[in-house]
Amino acid sequence: MSFQVHRREGHVTMPWANGAGTTREVAKAASGETAFDWRLSFADVAASGPFSALPEVDRVITLVEGTSMTLDVDGDEHVLVPFEPYRFAGESAVDCSTDRPTVDFNVMTRRGRWTSAVESRALPGDVTVIDGAAPDAGGERFVAVLDGFPGVIGPRGVLIVLRPYDVVRAGTEQLTLCGTGHVVVVDLRPTPTPV
Questions:
Q1: What is the C-alpha separation between 159 and 5, in angstroms, rounded?
Q2: Matching PANTHER family, A to Z (predicted)?
């Protein structure tokens, strides 16, 4: 898919798999019998409690709002701080502790079908070029705005102002950003089929 801007107000709100919270789905790819092959969303965490178990799914979570969140993942404690991605297996037993509501950005990929690379970047205020996704057939690249109001140069050189929680789907196109803020760059790649 070519360049596309997913605006915050267009994200689809739905309950977590365990019913303990809600998420705002940005985009996903579904196929066959699985609910999704990959999925991007912003989750609203209203209070401490367990995360949904998602077997055979690799997850990357990035805290967007809130000063911190502590995850107990299979007995190991991890303190999340804003804008730093953290990767874990979806089938892990995860309990979340937070003293106030938080929002996090989630990247989920179906293990054996897709992989993800997730990188947080602070925009320096001038022009930042994000090269197109790797040449893998069917690869996708997204840039999610976590804070600030950066601009992206869209088709035909038009400057598009972005807001927090807007997400740009770049496909394999090069993206040019300007302004300040924090973004997450997500590269999605299909897993090669064994021969």
A1: 12
A2: PROTEIN VES
The β-bridge partners of 188 are 116, 140
Q: Compute the distance between CA of residue 89 and CA of residue 4 in angstroms, rounded to an integer.
A: 29
Give CA–CA dist 46/23, Å, rounded.
11
User: Strand, helix or coil at 99?
Assistant: coil
**How many CB atoms are closer than 10 A to CB 24?**
20
> pLDDT category, 135, cuts 50, 70, 90?
very low
The conformation of residue 51, written as its DSSP 8-state character, comes to P
Tokens 């089938």 belong to residue: 91
Question: Which of 184, 170, 172, 173 is CA-nearest to residue 4?
Answer: 170
Identity (one letter) of the amino acid at 42? F
55 torsion bin: left (phi>0), alpha (psi -120 to 50), beta (else)? beta
* The model's pTM: 0.90
Q: What is the pLDDT of residue 48?
A: 87
Of 44, 47, 23, the residue nearest 35 (C-alpha): 23
Q: How far is CA 138 from CA 56, 59, 194, in A?
A: 21, 20, 16
98-121 pLDDT, tens per residue? 888 899 999 999 999 999 999 999
Structure tokens at 136: 């893998």
